[in-house]
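Example record used in the benchmark description.
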Amino acid sequence: MTTVRKVGLVGWGAIGRVVGTALVEDRLPGAELVCVVDNRPLGDAAPAPQVSFDEALERCDLIVEAAGQGVVREWGERVLASGTDLLIASTGALTDEELSKQLLTAGPGRVYFTGGAVGGLDLLQAVRSLGPLAEVRLTTTKLPGTLEQPWMDAELLARLRSATGPVEVMAGTARDVPVKFPKSTNVAASVALAVGDLDAVRVRVVADPGAHRTRHVVEASGAHGAYRFEVAHLPDPGNPATSQVVPYAVLRSLAALAGRTGQIL
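Model output (C-alpha cells):
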C-alpha cells in the first residue's frame, strides 16, 4: 500500500502557488496538500486550510518551504525536531554554517534541498566523492532591477539604473554573496552544498539590461575532470527575481520524495 505524503506548504507566492496548484489538481500522485502557512491572510486564494506553523507540524509529514531564507532560519530545526521532513527551496540560508550544521544534524525529520534554477548539482556531488575540486566558479546574470538591494550606495544604484550593458555588481564566495542578495542567489548556496565548501565557490553577480533570461554558468575542474553547466531561464512574470522554472524544480523534488517511479536520482 502506497503512503501518501501529507504536505504543508509554507509560502503562497510565485513558487508556492505553482506547487500548491499542482498538488490540489492531483498532478503528483503520492502527495496531497493538507495546509498552507503564510504570514498574510489568504482567504479564498488558498486551496487548502491556512493554518499556523505549529498546526502544520501536527497535520503534515512533509513541509515544503517556498517563502524565503527567514523561514528556514526560524523554523527549520523545529520542523525536523518534530519528526516532520523538510524540503528547502531557499538554500541561501545555508550560508550560515551554524544553521547548516543544525539542520544537517537535527532529526528525526529529514532535510532535503531542491536544486532550483541550476542543473548538474547531482554530478558535482558525485565528483566530490573522488576528491576536492580545484576550482569552482558561478556567474549569475540578471536584470538590474532584480538585483537592487537596501545596502547599495547611490553610486552603485546609479550604475545599475544607467547600465547599457553588463555590469559586475559583486564578486566573492558562496559564503558572502547570497547574504547580500537573499532573493536572487540561492543558486550560489546550492552549488556550495553540492561541492561541500562555501569558500571554494567563487561567485560573480552581473546586472545586464539585456538579460531577458536569467543566466547561471557553473564551471568546475579538478584532478578527475572538468565540468561546465549553463542555463538561461525566463524570469517569473510575477516575481522577476525568481526564474520561472524554480517551482517545477520543487515539484520534481517533491515527486521524488513522494515515491514517483522513473525519477532521475
